[in-house]
Design a protein that fits this description.
- With 472 residues, this protein is α/β, with parallel strands linked by helices.
- The chain has 2 domains: 9-62 and 354-469, Alpha-Beta Complex (Aspartate Aminotransferase, domain 1); 77-352, Aspartate Aminotransferase, domain 2, CATH 3.40.640.
- The chain contains 14 helices and 17 strands.
- It has helices spanning 65-68, 77-89, 101-113, 127-144, 165-170, 174-177, 196-199, 206-224, 251-262, 314-323, 337-352, 355-374, 410-422, 451-469, and strands spanning 46-48, 51-53, 60-62, 118-124, 152-156, 188-191, 229-234, 237-238, 245-246, 265-270, 293-296, 308-313, 380-386, 389-394, 424-425, 427-434, 437-443.
- The strands form 4 sheets. The chain has a 7-stranded mixed β-sheet with strand order 4-12-11-10-7-5-6, with helices on both faces. A 4-stranded mixed β-sheet has the order 1-2-3-15. Strands 13-14-17-16 form a 4-stranded antiparallel β-sheet.
- The two termini are 30 Å apart.
- The structure holds pyridoxal-5'-phosphate (PLP).
- Its cofactor is pyridoxal 5'-phosphate.
- Belongs to the class-III pyridoxal-phosphate-dependent aminotransferase family.
- This is Pyridoxal phosphate-dependent transferase.
- It holds the Pfam family Aminotran_3.
C-alpha cells in the first residue's frame, strides 16, 4: 500500500478511560470543509457504484457520497448519456436570452414534486448560491411589499448555509465563520439550534421543547423589532454543523407560526437534507410545514453536475406577479441546460427505481445496526438521523456529555482510521456541542446501496471507532 496519513499513537489505544494525546496544535481545528484531500492517496482516477478506486489497488467503500451528494452512486452511464445528449443539442444559453427546454422541464418537475406549494424555480450550481439568492429574494420581496425596513435575518447556532459572505453570515458554524467573522453581515442574528441531545430538559417532551424554542424566536423578533425581520432560515434536519440532527416533531410548525405572526418569510435550507436524503423528497413534506422559500442542492443532481435551486412559494410569486416585478439577481451559469438535463435524469432515476422507499427501509436498518454496534460505546454520546442521513457524536464522558478538546480532532481521527484501515469513507465535522467543540462523523450512503453494503458500512465504521477510542 502507498504511504498513508499518519495517525497519532494514542489514537489506536484504549482512550475512553485515559488521557488522550494528539499531534494537533491547540489552534488547529479540522473539519471536512477545511481539510484538503486525503493525504497519501494517489490522484483519483475511477469510481463505480459505491466504491472509490484511488489507485494502488485500494477500493474504498463510499459511505458519505462526499458531503451527502452522490445519492445514486458513481459513474452511471444513463446519467452521463443524458448530460452528453444535452451537450450535443446545445450546451449553454444565457438565462437572459432564452429559457432552455430542460430548464423548463426540471422546473415543472420540481414544482409538481411540491404539489404546487412551490411555484417558481431558479436553477443554480451551488448550495451557497441558492441560499444567497433566498436571502436576497427575501429582501427584495419586502421592497416590493413596501416594507423596506425589513433588513434583519435570523439564523441558528450550529448551522451551515454556505461559504459566500451572505450564506456564511446566516450560518452559525463557529469554525467556518472564524477567519471571516469581522466581515460577516451585522444584519444576521442567531437563536439556538434545535438539538434535543444537548438541550432538552429532563422530562421535557417534543411539544414543550418546541414551545420553548418558539418563545426564544419570539423574543429575538421583539429584540430586533418585529417588523425589521425579513426572514428566518433553518435546516429542517441539520447537516454538517450538527451531524444529522432532525428537528423534533412540532418544532418546524412552531417556528412557522412565529414567522407568520410577525410577517417574516421562512426559508428552509434543504441543500443537504433534501431531495430524498431523509426519506421524503422534501424534508418539509414529513410534517407538511411548507416554507416560503426552499433551497436544494447536493442530491438534486447526485454530483453528476453542480446543481442547486431556489424554490419560491406562492406568497412571494403572487406578489411578484401582482406588482409585475423581477428578481434583481443572476449568474452567468444560472439555468444551465446541461445541469438541468442531468438533474432531471437523476430525479427520474430516483423516482423510477423507487429509491426514496429504499432510503426509508435502508435507513431503518442502518439506524438499528448502528445502535446495536455502537450504542453502548463509552465515547459514543449520540446516534441520530433520519433516512440515510446518520450522525455519530463522540464525547469524552458519556454521562456528562463532555466533548473532547477540539485540538484532539477526534472526528478527523475516526475519518482517517476508517479510510486507511477499514477502507470506508465517512464525513467528519467539529462544532456540534457548540462554540466549536464537539466531534461527529456522518454516514450518508447512496439511496440505492443494498442492505448487505449498509451492514458492511456499519461494521467498518464500528471497527474504526473501536480502533480510535478502544472497544466497548
Ligand atoms: C445545509 C447546507 N446549505 C448550504 C450549503 C452550501 O452548499 P455548497 O457547498 O454547494 O455551496 C451546504 C453545504 O454543505 C449545506 O449543507
Amino acid at each position: 500500500m502507498g504511504q498513508f496519513f499518519s495517525i497519532p499513537e494514542a489514537s489506536s489505544s484504549k482512550i475512553h478511560s485515559r488521557k488522550i494525546e494528539s499531534d494537533a496544535s491547540s489552534e488547529t481545528v479540522v473539519d471536512s470543509l477545511s481539510k484538503g484531500p486525503a493525504e497519501g492517496f494517489p490522484l483519483l482516477e475511477k469510481a463505480k457504484g459505491y466504491y472509490w478506486y484511488p489507485g494502488d489497488g485500494a477500493r474504498i467503500l463510499d459511505a458519505c457520497g462526499g458531503a451527502g451528494v452522490a445519492c445514486i452512486g458513481h459513474a452511471r452511464r444513463d446519467v452521463a448519456q443524458a448530460a452528453v445528449s444535452q451537450m450535443k443539442a446545445f450546451s449553454y444559453v444565457s438565462y437572459a436570452h432564452f429559457k432552455a427546454m430542460p430548464v423548463q422541464e426540471v422546473s415543472d418537475w420540481l414544482i409538481q414534486s411540491t404539489e404546487g406549494e412551490m411555484q417558481k424555480v431558479y436553477l443554480m450550481c451551488s448550495g451557497s448560491e441558492a441560499v444567497e439568492a433566498a436571502l436576497k429574494l427575501s429582501r427584495e420581496y419586502f421592497i416590493w411589499k413596501d416594507e423596506p425596513q425589513r433588513v434583519n435575518f435570523i439564523g441558528r447556532e450550529e448551522s451551515y448555509h454556505g461559504t459566500t459572505i451572505g450564506s456564511l453570515s446566516a450560518s452559525g458554524h463557529v469554525v467556518r465563520r472564524g477567519p471571516f467573522e469581522p466581515i460577516l453581515g451585522p444584519q444576521f442574528h442567531k437563536i439556538s439550534s434545535c438539538n434535543p441531545y444537548r438541550q432538552r430538559h429532563p422530562e421535557e417532551g417534543d411539544e414543550a421543547f418546541s414551545t420553548r424554542k418558539a418563545v426564544e424566536l419570539e423574543e429575538k423578533f421583539q429584540q430586533l423589532g418585529p417588523d425589521t425581520v425579513a426572514a428566518v432560515i433553518m435546516e429542517p434536519v441539520v447537516g454538517a454543523a450538527l451531524g444529522c440532527v432532525p428537528a423534533v416533531q412540532g418544532y418546524l410548525r412552531a417556528m412557522k407560526i412565529v414567522c407568520e405572526k410577525y410577517g417574516a418569510l421562512l426559508i428552509f435550507d434543504e441543500v443537504m437534507c433534501g431531495m430524498g436524503r431523509t426519506g421524503s423528497l422534501h424534508a418539509w413534506q414529513r410534517e407538511m410545514v411548507v416554507p416560503d422559500l426552499q433551497t436544494i442542492g447536493k442530491g438534486f443532481a447526485g454530483g453528476y453536475m453542480p446543481a442547486s435551486a431556489l424554490l419560491v412559494g406562492a406568497k412571494v410569486t403572487e406578489l411578484m406577479k401582482r406588482e409585475d416585478k423581477a428578481f434583481t439577481h443572476g449568474h452567468t451559469y444560472q439555468n444551465h441546460p446541461v445541469v438541468a438535463a442531468t438533474a432531471l435524469k437523476v430525479q427520474k432515476i430516483i423516482q423510477e427505481e423507487n429509491l426514496i422507499a429504499n432510503v426509508e427501509a435502508a435507513g431503518r436498518t442502518l439506524e438499528q445496526v448502528l445502535h446495536k454496534l455502537l450504542g453502548n460505546h463509552p465515547n459514543v454520546g449520540d446516534i441520530r438521523g433520519r433516512g440515510l442521513f446518520w450522525g455519530i457524536e463522540f464525547v469524552r464522558d458519556k454521562a456528562t456529555k463532555e466533548p473532547f478538546d477540539p485540538a484532539l480532532q477526534m472526528a478527523h481521527q475516526v475519518f482517517r482510521v476508517a479510510m486507511r484501515d477499514f477502507r470506508v469513507l465517512v464525513y467528519h465535522g467539529q462544532g456540534c456541542a457548540g462554540d466549536g467543540r464537539g466531534d461527529h462523523i456522518m454516514i450518508m450512503p447512496a439511496y440505492n446501496m443494498p442492505e448487505t453494503s449498509i451492514l458492511d458500512v456499519a461494521k467498518r465504521v464500528t471497527r474504526a471507532v473501536e480502533k480510535v477510542f478502544g472497544g466497548c
